[in-house]
Amino acid sequence: MSRNILLIGFMGVGKGALARELVRQAPALYALDTDDMIESLTNTRIKKIFATAGEPAFRALEQKTADWLAKNVQNAVISTGGGFYKVKNIRSIGTVVYLKADFQWILDRILNAPNAKKKLKKRPLFQDVDKARALYESRYEAYEEVADIVLDVTKKSTAELAKELLERLEISS
Ligand code: S3P
């Protein structure tokens, strides 16, 4: 396989966890995360970028990351920030997989995590639950529209989802 797998979906749905499981099951793949890439590039935490440079500057960094990935990367599983689906060339980076869950499931997943406080603190757009819910409502259709594959993540384990996705994409584990 030469194309990348791009995991999109709302904050806290488990994109990073699925990416790590995919590379565990398929050693030929390598995991990247767009938020981590932006933090390395700028040597600044996402939270700080939002607070000092502002959201439009962060979105521009996401577009720069998308352009670089499209040109330079293959055979990677790329987990993305929840707003990355808006980059203009997303489908040229790889197969777009949408991790689908309803808002309450996502909220419970975050709140039940052992490091829930940390998970919330690092996400500037998840400081207020009602605002986060409104953001979810404004996005969920667009996620589905841009995706090649939609994965309901609410009924299966991360290991089962990874196995299923690898089979579907015919990637050997
Ligand atoms: C964002 C999601 C975050 C991060 C930034 C903005 C969003 O990533 O990119 O805080 O717009 O949904 P996660 O989806 O990993 O939380």
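^ shikimate-3-phosphate complex. The beta strands are 4-8, 30-33, 76-79, 94-100, 149-152. The pocket of shikimate-3-phosphate is lined by residues 11, 35, 46, 81-83, 123-125 (CB under 6 Å).
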